[in-house]
Every structure is written in C-alpha cells, then in structure tokens.
Design brief:
This protein has ten helices and ten strands. A seven-stranded mixed sheet has the order 3-5-4-7-8-9-10, with helices on both faces. The radius of gyration is 17 Å and the shape is globular.
Length: 276
Amino acid sequence: MILKNYQFHYSLIGTLDKPLILFLHGFMGNIDEFDEAIKLLFNQFSYLTLDLPGHGKTQVLGEDEYYTMANTAHALINLLDELKIAKCFLVGYSMGGRLALYLTLHFPERFHKVVLESASPGLPTEAERLERIKLDTQIGRKLTRSLEKSDFANFISNWYNQPIFGYIKNHSEYDRMVESRLQNNPQELDKSLRFMGTGCQPSLWEKLQFNKIPMLLLVGEYDQKFISINTEIAKVCEFVQIKIISNVGHNIHFENTLAFVENIKSFLSAASSKLG
C-alpha cells in the first residue's frame, strides 16, 4: 500500500471480525518474523504484519527523515486508518518494541493492550543518546561496507555475539533465521539504525508515568540488560506486568515460541473474549 512517503509491504491474515494483533519486528527482521507464533495462535485472532522502513520490501519514498520513529509511527496510524482498523492489540519486539511503546504513549486510543518483548523507552539523557549515536554510526559503517553476501553474513554473526542474545546461536533454527536476515538490504538497514536507533529516538521515560494502557513486558532470563531496563519501566509505569522467560535471551519469540505465545494468549484472552 502506498501512503504519503511510504510504500508498505504488509500482510493481513484472517478476518476483521476477530480481534486483530499488529506485530512489529525488530532490527534486521521482516514481515515473516512472527510466522511461527501466528501458526500457534492460529485462528483466535487476525494479524497485521509488515516490513518496517529500512527492512524487507517496504520502501521510503520521501527523504531520510521518514525513517525516524515519529514519522514511522504516524505512517502506521495512517495504515491502520486505510485498513479501517480503529483499535487493535499491539506486539513489538526490540526495535519494534520501542516503536510499539512510542505508539502506545502517543496514540493510546488505538490500542487495547500491548506486549513489549525485550524493549526499552530509549535513553534518558542526552549524553547517553550521543554516545549511542556514535556507536550506531560505527555499526552503520560496517553495514554500508557489506557489499558481498559474505560480508553481511559476518556482520549478522557478530551481531548475535552480543551478550543480550544469550545462546541463540545454539538454536536448531539459527541458520534459517540468518538466511531470513540476509534478505534485507544493508544500506537500508543503515538508515534504519541511524534514524530510528536507540540513540536518536525520543526518550519515552518521562511519558511512562501517564500510561493507562495494560502492558505486558517480556524479557529473557539471559538478557540481564533488558531485565534491568524493564524492571525500571515497571516501577514508574502503571498497568504494567513483567514476565521473565526462562532459558532464553533477547529474542524470546524465536528461542521459545511456545512460551511467547502462551504469555500473549493469557494476557490478551480476557479482553479478546469481549472484543471478538
């Protein structure tokens, strides 16, 4: 669908007479990110999945500023409007979780309940944001130098060496996930990182206190960094519950899809029975 400054590649699964979940993937993900979870959820919901700007087949038709979180969020609201989706559930992972939190705090009337998987409200101080921008710029340079598939594969391998991902490389489907990541364009990923990375996104910490939307925070046992961040979110944000998933790192829905789905179903079920 072509909207102003965007051409979104999306998939609408199911019928709108069932409660709808909008899924937002993480960095280097794509429209297929939550396929295994959707298979387990089956026909209890309908589903909207898409490629975020800088990923997959979605194209930014305007200037680079349209990769930013604020502009992307407005574009997603416009997409919901075009699809005549007045209100839905929202699930976001990592980068998609940061975007989901932005949507929740700026457009609360559009969402029943929200699940944030390994997400953060950004960095609270300008000094931290500037330091992160420097780091993301360095990472972006490595992406832009990934002219061969082997270069990009090396980048992905190094990415998943980060401690937050725990033992993800031991997963039986790890190679399949890497192959999916390789479908992205490194030059486009660089733009996503530079314009919607943690360093350049607006800090949402101050807005958390005003939240009235029920939220479930999912974090992995091996992801100590995000356990700490989400514990702080729960301290300052009302209507929030936090769940630590055993034996996984940052990417919960990939490492333990069943636990991910069971937590989503449990959290959404009470509301979905009324909304279906």
